[in-house]
């Protein structure tokens, strides 16, 4: 029984080390001409429309986190802040436990631009 306990502790240590060594998230940013509260609401709506489950959303902080259950599992982190009379959107994502390259988030930012009605 004691050997099982040490095996479990060892496995937890390995899993914890694997999580700690993952690369940092690199956000992609875009500034919109819409107010930050409107941008935040539309961004969260867009995540839901795309099948993400919003796990946390706080309008006052301008932060949201959503997950997509499809394999290998995707997680999106959103930050919306005021930028002059408009808003700045920072978005980053994970595929499994690995950061998604920032350029892969461009289509999502363009979709948000269309949803807000500010696409060129």
- Give the overall form: globular
CATH architecture: 2-Layer Sandwich
Gyration radius, in Å: 18 Å
What's the number of extended β-strand segments? Answer: 6
CATH class label: Alpha Beta
How much of the sequence lies in strands comes to 25-35%
**Any idea how many domains?**
1
Rounded mean pLDDT is: 86
Helix count equals 3
What low-confidence regions span 5 or more consecutive residues with pLDDT below 50?
3-8, 10-21
> Ends: how far apart?
66 Å
Q: Could you describe the largest sheet, including whether it forms a barrel?
A: 6 strands, antiparallel
CATH fold-type name: Alpha-D-Glucose-1,6-Bisphosphate, Chain A, domain 4
> What is the chain-wise order of helices and strands?
HEHEEEEEH
Key descriptive features of the protein:
alpha+beta, 32% strand, 120 residues
Itemize the secondary structure elements and their pairings.
Layout: H1 2-20, E1 28-32, H2 36-49, E2 53-58, E3 63-68, E4 74-83, E5 86-95, E6 98-99, H3 106-116
Structure, explained:
By secondary structure, the protein is of the alpha+beta class. Helix content is 37%, strand content 32%. The chain has a single domain (23-116), classed as Alpha-D-Glucose-1,6-Bisphosphate, Chain A, domain 4 (2-Layer Sandwich), CATH 3.30.530. It has helices at 2-20, 36-49, 106-116, and strands spanning 28-32, 53-58, 63-68, 74-83, 86-95, 98-99. Strands 1, 2, 3, 4, 5 and 6 form a six-stranded antiparallel beta sheet that branches. Strand 4 and strand 5 form a beta hairpin. The radius of gyration is 18 Å and the shape is globular. The relative contact order is 0.21. The model is unreliable at 3-8 and 10-21 (pLDDT under 50).
